[in-house]
Amino acid sequence: MRNMTRVLIAAAALGGTLAAATGAGLAASHPDLKWTAIFDATGPAGAYGTSQKNATELAQADIDAGKIDAGGQKISIDVQDSATSPAQVINIMQSAFGSGTSLIIGPTLSSEAFKSDPLAVKANISVLGVSNTASGIPAMGPCVFRNSLSEAQIVPDVIEAAKKAWHVKTAAIIYGDDDQFTKADYTIFNAELPKAGVKVVDVETFHKGDVDFKAQLTKIKEAKPDVVVYGALYAEGAKLLAQARQVGLNAHEIGGNGFNSPQIIALAGKAAQGVIVGAAWYSGAETNGNAAFVKNYTAKYAKSPDQFAAQAYAGAQIAAAAVKKSHPSDAAGMCSALKELGSVQTVIGPFKFASTRDADAHGFIVQIKNGTFAKFGD
Amino acid sequence: MEWLVHFYALHSKLIDQIGINAIFALSLSLTLQAGHLALANAAFGGIAAYVASLLSLSRGWPLSVTTLIGAAAAAAVGAVIGLPVTRLRGVFLAIATIGFGEIALIVENNLSITGGAEGLSQIPNETTTWKIYLVLAILAFFFWRLRRTRAGWAIAAVREDEYAAASFGIDPARVKFWTFVGSAAIAGIAGSLYAHENFFISPGDWGFSRMIDILVYCVIGGAASPWGAMLGAAIISLLPEVFRFLHDYRDIVNGIVLLAVVIFAPQGIAGLWSRDQRGRKAAAAAEGQSR
Amino acid sequence: MFDQQLANGIFLGAVYALFAVGYTLIFGVLDILNLAHSAIFMASSFVALALVRHGMPFWAAFLVATAFGGALSVVLDRVAFAPLRARGVGGGALGPLISSIAFGIIVVSVVRGIFGPDEVGYPTGAVLSANLHLGHATFTAIDLSVLVISLVMMILLSMLLKVTPLGRAIRAVAENTKAASLLGIDVERTIGLTFLIAGALGAAAGILIGAQFNAVGILMGQRIELKGLAVIILGGMGSIPGAVLGGFLLGLLEVFSVAYLSSSYRDAIAFAVMFLILIVRPAGLLGKRAARTA
Fold first, then answer.
1. Measured on CA atoms in the order C235, C240, C243, C244, is the torsion positive or negative?
2. Residue A25, in any domain of the structure
3. Deepest of A121, A175, C58, C230, by most Cβ within 10 A of its Cβ?
4. ipTM for the predicted complex
5. CATH class of B2-249
């Protein structure tokens, strides 16, 4: 049986080569669509890139199995590791242009996107960002899309919810000032809190990789805010929560986008209880296919998916839906297919692109309760 | 020819990266040639990159002008820092310059004009392959000529033996200071080219890990030789792309290659070649004597 | 607030001191910057965590992982430094600096391959985390143990260097390798043992700090590595009491700069102090050796 498969594959490969050699006339009706996913599976951003890589590989399997419907079109996603190096993102992208890719998915960080997306724009290849949250990403070119919500889209709702439930009047913010992602939390909360009538009474910063935040938290405690806003990724975030308990800081707590990670609960344990987070997705979200996604991901990788994984998986769902609808055969077709997509059901909820190619979707406001993310207010 | 055009279309950015990294490597090799280990080149590159990019963005001045001003700014900061630190020996100079680099990063993260961690975007894409390699050629020519000048001789003398150099009337402190300033200026040129190549810069581009990369270029190629530095930059820039097929094992192999070069070719890859030459000459001389 | 901040500073200082003791030992003896020290720190922390997860009590895991760190440090010396010493490679600190970086890269990649890229913590209850109160300050039991252990290590190591034959041999090698070997000291063995001790100290630091902050991750060594430099410069290169004093000073300095100035410049202050010390008093607070060229 296995030998038979091998013979068939060999025959198919030979046939393919011959077709290519004779001018590719025969195979042109349904050629495989090639996409290239560029994620930082290693290096400092490896924890996030690995989730994206895993989810994309899961999506590939689901496309192959027909669980993600691409209208029968064969799609192969080449997942590459850019090692948290912008230079590698750029090189992978340029090589991909030469090998006939019709869509770039990624890269992981906004700072990488700012350096590499202009190349795709120049080469007329579409880009679908699945984790870039900085403002100005889709504005780089007419075929640069993203499905990741920027903080600006979620934060006002989070503040409203916190005001309503907790009657907060004063807030303190602590954020990582050397990271684009966490700095954005500060920029947006610091602008939106006063608009909602909440006074910012203290702002503190830390650096990526710091482990001791007690000095800043003690200072925040002195300022007696009603609510503390954390602009941090999970590694620093978990320590912030634990140490806030330790210094006796008993305010309400809001986490930025980076807090939406199962790791924060795993690391901070009980200290994470009660924190609310504005999220693009959470594992308990009752969106189309989410339960199956969480189950399959957990089974395959022995850990729960995080928001990076969900958004990467949704990225593949969105692009596949565009293929199903418009049957693109090349990069230009891929771009217009994404533009004409309309609304689609994904694991992060019903999704469509705004005219600015930004995500037009609603976030979730979730609260950490008894070791899991639950919808806030339930 | 068509193949070449195709190759360039696929790899032009990698070719550019090699050129810019080679300029960074040359900047470090200037201080290494004088025998001191200063690790602030990434920081100087960053300072020049910010100055040049801000000028391009606000004034629209051409790359040549912004790069020269950026490099001058880096050299000026280098002179201020260089006066006290170039008196430090060996590893202390290295540590002081690492400290300076960290301070520079923190300042870049906190200034509003640099955009902080959110960086500077939409920098005009003015760097091109020929500009990079023109600069590299000019610098290579400069380094080649330098060896035949009194200054070059003084640099070599200080590297070999500071006391002996002093007895020849060379002031080692002056040599160290000027190589430090020159190194900052060259790093500044590389930084400006990098900024105008990549549309975007942020403080993360100029951290300790980039400094280590630059140091690795020089050590792999051959610490005290500008040719070695350029060769090292090319090899190390290519390594991750060449080893891409190794997937998860890529970093381990990178580390092993690095370790092997340091241990088996302490003079770098360029050193392998020149030691061969010297060895052959020495062998020839010995043969001559025995006759 | 002052009480709490003082406590914060002292306990942060203990963390720095603990890391710096092993770091400064290699630095003092061999005059090389060992950038693989932080990789050993990190790898040992993972080993301890893995053992605890497999049911070993924390104290036993601590001992095993500390031994592992010492052994890994000896391997580091044999692979990355000994071949360079055997060749008498000059070129300042350059060769060993790079080979230690290369060794660090290899260790980090292997650890990532085994344990993955995520930061992980200890199972609940595995580590003492009770809150203690003193005056107006609150801290945890493990904070206190880190403080005690770093002081005990400093005293033991200082005594070892002062009174034992091995200590005398280490000091002789630190002073001058050639003279030491003329005195009949087995230089290679002494250096090997120095690496063993330094690695075990680095491992102990990694395990305790991982437990203290309940965070073990492949990047945990990177930040403290540079801070550790500031500590050993402040205290004086190669001086064990200096490393401890430098650790506490830096901890207090950072905490009070956050309390009374701005947290944005907290690290800048640490590195600025290091920079100034190098320029004004390169031997550090307790060091003796000259950092400047004569």
1. negative
2. no
3. C230
4. 0.88
5. mainly alpha
Is residue A312 located within the same domain as residue A343? yes
A144: helix, strand or coil: strand
In a domain, A14, yes or no: no
Å between C83 CA and nearest CA of chain B:
6
pLDDT of A19-65, one tens digit each? 343 333 333 445 789 999 999 998 888 889 999 999 999 999 999 99
* Structural domain spans, chain C: 12-221
- DSSP codes of every residue in A43-67: STTHHHHHHHHHHHHHHHHHHHTTS
C194-225 pLDDT per residue, tens:
999 999 999 999 999 999 888 899 989 888 88
Q: With b meaning 16 or more CB within 10 Å and e meaning fewer, what string describes B105-129?
A: bbbbbbeeebbbbbbbbebbebbee
Chain B positions contacting chain A at CB under 8 Å are: 6, 9-14, 17, 105-106, 109-110, 116-119, 121, 125, 198-200, 202-205, 237, 240-241, 244, 247-248, 250-251
Pairing label, strands A276-279, A252-255: parallel
Domain count, chain A: 2
Instruction: Give the whole-angstrom CA distance, residue B135 versus residue B139.
Output: 6
Instruction: Inspect the interface and report whether the beta carbons of B258 and C94 lie closer than 8 Å.
Output: no
CATH of the domain at A127: 3.40.50.2300
For residues A191 and A209, state if they share a domain.
yes
pLDDT at position C288 is: 64
Question: In this complex, is the C-beta atom of A132 within 8 Å of any C-beta atom belonging to chain B?
Answer: no
From CA B118, how far away is CA B200, in angstroms rounded?
Answer: 10
- Enclosing domain of residue A318: 32-149+288-360
Gap between the Cα atoms of B43 and B31, Å rounded: 15
For chain B, give every domain's residue range. 2-249
Tokens 């020049």 — which residue?
A: B48
Q: How far is B174 from chain C (nearest CA, A)?
A: 13
Q: In whole angstroms, what is the distance from residue B6 CA to residue A133 CA?
A: 35
CB-based contacts of A181: which residues, under 8 Å, 6+ apart? A109, A110, A133, A233, A257, A258
Reading the block at residue B225, the tokens are 């030789």
Q: Which residues of A172-184 are buried (b: 16+ CB within 10 A; e: fewer)?
A: bbbbbbbbbbbbb
* Residues A270 and A188 placed together within one structural domain of the fold: yes
